[in-house]
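Homework help board

Subject: predicted structure for assignment chain

Our instructor gave us this sequence and asked us to write out the predicted structure in token form, then describe one feature. I got the tokens but I'm not sure how to describe them. Can anyone check?
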Amino acid sequence: MLDYYFRRPLLWDYLLAALVTVAAYFGLSTHVITQPPKDQVLSTASDLLTISLTIAGFVLTLLTILITFKSSSNVSNQTNQEEEPVFNVFFGTSYYFETVKHLKNGIKSLLFISIAGYFIKLLISPNSQFLMYLFSIFGVVIIGLTLSRCLIILSKIIKLQDDRRRID
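My token output:
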């Protein structure tokens, strides 16, 4: 299941976020869900946009650390991988490049949510907070899924280290 998800994670994230947002729209239209007051919508949206930028910064830091470690490791195909530290072995596999790709796409997704949210906030009229409310729902789903994806990747790296430690 995870392999299928990780083939196109952004597509699945945005598709799920769109479905949740459409469900919220219908919930609001049928009065199953009530929209909070205008000031609460704006406050929540501002918080989400700040959270999105902050998480993007943390993921960017993680990505920078991985790239820095990769540049300082020297793994060749001729070395004995049993004697190499697990990170050096990881850097020599295609998993490293997949990890970098997914983390980089996570940063792009979080930045997109944040910048789009700020544009929406700037461009909508003060009386039409409905769009900002729906965008906040969309943003919460994207932030949650992106953060979950990054945590899954980190968990897999830690599991790789733990498995290697148990073998040694």
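Reply (TA_rk): Your tokens look well-formed. For the description, you could write something like this. The two ends are 30 Å apart (CA to CA). That's the kind of observation they're looking for.
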